[in-house]
């Protein structure tokens, strides 16, 4: 009988984005039974997942490619304590299954003996003879060794290496790998979790464990009451999953309105020249005070220069909320921007304190399963980059397309990143357009989109100067894209 796995696990097993499998389910290529996928159907679609001819672990790690083996060895292994807890719980399950099987076997053998007696006692009764034959053949079939279902083997192995967490009431799922806490794992998976300090003192990441076990990963000061403990409450930032499947109850942010305003003093960790007039500013927050924000949002940055007064400006965060301590910003040379002046004059240096206030803005991903199309003009790439990284973390979209217009002489200052995404992901494609005229450039992007996207049902995210986003918006609307599927951010 074919083994059944969730779509989430199926994507892990065959190494594709969950959104790709979900799209195949919608197209009828892959069948779902009670939200589960059969490994047999999965192997038909992804026949490369075949067993090699060597030892057990090696066989499993070689199935997909080196990446799978590397992941298992380097990233997925949890601490020894957690590993032994998961192995213990899996051994208990295995023991129960063995006991049941043994009893069933004894029952069938005793029934077979009883039938034999009936056959001997009633040699002319064909019904007893037929029943005996059925029992003998059935038992032989059960005892015959089938070929190994490789995806089932991989699933069992992943059950020990990584835990699968299901969130109620949203139904979101995420994996806990290696030594990661529940909070880190949930954020890496792109979930909009509720949290504050990240180190066990504020209590904001409190969730209720509905089923299975968690294991403590670090000391915490926040005092959970005896009642809360009895009800199964725990802190996500200080615990990991001790069992292979864990169900948690928690509230997730629905949108920008659920993200609190914060003020954090961060340090400049690096300032890198991306192009003559573009710098990458990397800020690092204290371990105990991270920025909670949604991809696509902006913050206000303030720097009090000892000799040149205060500088302040608003910038979109160019990094993923899943890395809430390391915040990236693209800064362009601009005489009207006091912070940019500090950056380009060399006044703002590594180690300097920068006050981060926010977040603000509603240019964020909406939940859905449509392919995503992003269009950016110049530094409009900053929030688009954050959105793309968030979408990649969510792993739930069938495909991502990026169109980037460069009007400035600095061009596409992160071409390598676009190339890396494209090389690493089957479902990502990009097109770079260069033109000093915003309308001509936007029209070129429209043409490129028209070539292969307008007849597909996509969600569009546009960011750049008003003329850029309006030109694209009007063309998309003319092509019949519903207004609700176009989100714009003027810069
Ligand atoms: S985030 Fe503050 S206690 Fe977990």
Report on the architecture of this protein.
The protein is elongated, with a radius of gyration of 28 Å. 38% of the residues are buried. The longest helix has 42 residues. Helix 6 runs antiparallel to helix 7. It is an alpha/beta fold. It has a six-stranded antiparallel β-sheet, with helices on one face. Strands 4-3-9-5-7 form a five-stranded mixed β-sheet. The chain has a five-stranded parallel β-sheet with strand order 18-17-16-19-20, with helices on both faces. Strand 12 and strand 13 form a beta hairpin. It is built from 15 helices and 20 strands. The termini are far apart. About 3% of the residues have low confidence. It folds into five domains: 73 residues, no CATH class; 78 residues; 87 residues, Roll (Ubiquitin-like (UB roll)), CATH 3.10.20.30; 104 residues, Elongation Factor Tu (Ef-tu), domain 3, CATH 2.40.30.10; 119 residues, Nucleotide-binding domain of ferredoxin-NADP reductase (FNR) module (Rossmann fold, 3-Layer(aba) Sandwich). FE2/S2 (inorganic) cluster binds next to loops.
What distinguishing features does this structure have?
491 residues, alpha/beta, 6-stranded antiparallel sheet, 5-stranded mixed sheet, 15 helices, 20 strands, elongated, binds FE2/S2 (inorganic) cluster
Radius of gyration: 28 Å
Strand content: 15-25%
Task: Tell how many strands the DSSP assignment holds.
Answer: 20
Structural domain tally: 5
CATH architecture of the largest domain: 3-Layer(aba) Sandwich
The kinds of small molecule bound in this structure are: FE2/S2 (inorganic) cluster
Average of pLDDT: 86
Corresponding CATH superfamily of the largest domain = Nucleotide-binding domain of ferredoxin-NADP reductase (FNR) module
Order of neighbouring strands in the sheet with most strands: 13-12-15-10-11-14
Treating each run of at least 4 consecutive H or I residues as one helix, how many helices?
15
**Residue share in helix:** 25-40%
Structural class: alpha/beta
CATH class of the largest domain: Alpha Beta
CATH topology (fold) name of the largest domain:
Rossmann fold
Global outline: elongated
